[in-house]
Amino acid sequence: MWAAIRPWLFPVWCIGCGAPEVGLCAACAAMARPVTAWIDGLPVTAAGEYAGPLREAVLATKRGERAYLDPLAGLLAPLIGAGSVVVPLVTTRGRAAERGFDQARELARRVAVLRSAACADVLRKRGAAQRGLGRAERLTASGRFALRPEARLPARAVLLDDVVTTGATLRDAARLLAGAGCTVLGAVVVARTPPGRETQRRGGRLVEA
């Protein structure tokens, strides 16, 4: 019954073209073109650039809108191998409480179902969120994550996040997991900020594959 009345109580339209009853329609999702970059030898594949409908869908999830989680997970799922172990790069407890969910965790769970994979929720975010930080501040920050006390680390894993800008967050998580004995095979993200679009970049550019 809830499935039948929900569209009436909480109508959803495609964030790209306004098509009804879908958060991101197939036509708008098809506009995303996967791109792979390398960060310290780690392959990072984004479903597309942080622009257009993809950017709007990501921002909507950051505002706490759940309608875009399934479409975004659908874009991420083909980027990982079946049976992989996915580790979400979770946000802070405060951010998750504001939104009502943790977007990386929710995306990882959905991707795991779509790919017959596993979601290893082993990280805990430390410190404040990075929103508003410049490139230099992002790159010099460290210790963003800790392992959850009850965490059972997989032998190998793929990291998952919503957006990559400088890559500093991915580096931090990969180093922590590697130091604990987990081999990080790569990372997938919904979108990457195109080179030159964030705060002034100085060195350490992402190198296109």
How would you summarize what this structure contains?
This protein is an alpha/beta fold and 209 residues long. The protein has helices at 2-9, 26-29, 52-62, 69-76, 93-99, 103-114, 135-140, 168-179; strands spanning 35-39, 42-49, 85-88, 118-119, 123-125, 145-147, 156-164, 183-192, 207-208. The protein has one domain: Rossmann fold (3-Layer(aba) Sandwich).
Question: Can you put this structure into words, describing what you see?
Answer:
By secondary structure, the protein is α/β, with parallel strands linked by helices. It has a single domain (32-200), classed as Rossmann fold, CATH 3.40.50. Helix content is 33%, strand content 22%. The protein has a seven-stranded mixed β-sheet with strand order 4-3-7-8-2-1-9, sandwiched between helices. Strands 5-6 form a two-stranded antiparallel ribbon. Helix 4 packs across helix 6. The model is unreliable at 1-9, 132-141 and 199-209 (pLDDT under 50).
